[in-house]
């Protein structure tokens, strides 16, 4: 057991614990992960009221899980297969992750959707499989620049949220984290304005409310896309934004520490 706060344990059901997740993508060898943790972990404890996840490559997950065990930081994977085992060359299952001490998994990142053919049909199976194994799924959704310009943002978000969460019972939705990541803001330095992020995340919350009001009140929805130490505080200060999924700026322990520290108190 860890002493970390959990997003769905609030007695009132309305208080959502901020979650700051660093998505390393295909960066950092195991040795580089060790070096990061040695610098990051001592300071990361400065905000026991914030949940922190490090989404590391598979090869560094054992290291991250072992070094964060019992503390406020959790190890997270960046993908998994929905089956627990089988003839799926190159894939990794939820029970394999859980055995290492991994506690969360990013699912449906736009890079996996665009570059590796991740489908909503697969996500519809992966999200419940992660929950069944005891992992926190961090489900990514978001529109392209063309979709936004064509006024299609809401249609795209509705499609992804409804399909990807279709097999999750309403009472289990608060165990899911949704990350709104506009594709045009990922890795571009072109972050959504706090108003744009709040508007889209408010819409995602309304979609959750179509399933259950309790889910809308308790499910954490993060913003991702060019979050950095300079813009984190304003983004995280928006009423519906419960944290951040941070790519590039999570690779530097100092920058990532500043982003964790920017979570509202
Ligand atoms: P970025 O990536 O912070 O580098 O834009 C975010 C993400 O892809 O999760």
What does this structure look like?
The protein has a single domain (19-27, 50-82, 91-261), classed as TIM Barrel (Alpha-Beta Barrel), CATH 3.20.20. Helix 1 runs parallel beside helix 2 (58-68) and helix 7 (153-164) packs across helix 8. It has 265 residues and is of the alpha/beta class. Mean pLDDT is 94; it is low at 6-14. It has an eight-stranded parallel barrel with strand order 1-2-3-4-5-6-7-8, surrounded by five helices. The longest helix is centred in the C-terminal third of the chain and has 18 residues, at 194-211. It is built from eleven helices and eight strands. 2-phosphoglycolic acid (PGA) binds at residues 23, 181, 186-187, 224-227, 245-249. Residues 23, 181, 186-187, 224-227, 245-249 line the site of 2-phosphoglycolic acid.
* Proportion in helices: 40-55%
Number of domains: 1
For this structure, what is the CATH class?
Alpha Beta
CATH T-level fold name? TIM Barrel
Strand order of the largest sheet: 1-2-3-4-5-6-7-8
Name the beta content range: 5-15%
Shape: globular
- Pick out the low-confidence regions: 6-14
What binds here, in terms of ligands, is: 2-phosphoglycolic acid
């Amino acid at each position: 057991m860890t002493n970390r706060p959990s997003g769905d344990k609030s007695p009132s059901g309305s208080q959502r614990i901020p979650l700051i997740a660093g998505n390393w993508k295909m960066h950092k060898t195991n040795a580089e992960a060790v070096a990061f943790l040695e610098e990051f972990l001592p300071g990361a404890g400065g905000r026991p009221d914030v949940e922190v996840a490090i989404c590391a490559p598979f090869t560094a997950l054992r290291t991250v899980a072992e070094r964060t065990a019992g503390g406020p930081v959790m190890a997270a994977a960046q993908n998994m297969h929905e089956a627990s085992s089988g003839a799926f060359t190159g894939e990794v299952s939820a029970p394999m992750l859980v055995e290492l001490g991994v506690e969360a998994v990013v699912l449906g990142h736009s890079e996996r959707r665009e570059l590796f053919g991740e489908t909503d049909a697969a996500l519809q199976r992966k999200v419940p499989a992660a929950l069944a194994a005891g992992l926190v799924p961090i489900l990514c959704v978001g529109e392209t620049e063309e979709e936004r310009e064509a006024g299609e943002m809401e249609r795209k978000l509705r499609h992804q949220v409804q399909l990807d969460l279709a097999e999750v019972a309403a009472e289990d939705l608060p165990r899911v984290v949704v990350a709104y990541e506009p594709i045009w803001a990922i890795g571009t330095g072109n972050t959504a304005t706090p108003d744009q992020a709040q508007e889209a995340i408010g819409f995602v919350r309304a979609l959750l409310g179509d399933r259950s009001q309790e889910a809308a009140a308790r499910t954490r929805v993060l913003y991702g896309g060019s979050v950095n130490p300079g813009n984190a505080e304003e983004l995280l200060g928006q009423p519906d934004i419960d944290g951040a999924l941070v790519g590039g700026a999570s690779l530097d322990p100092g920058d990532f520490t500043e982003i964790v520290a920017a979570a509202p108190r």
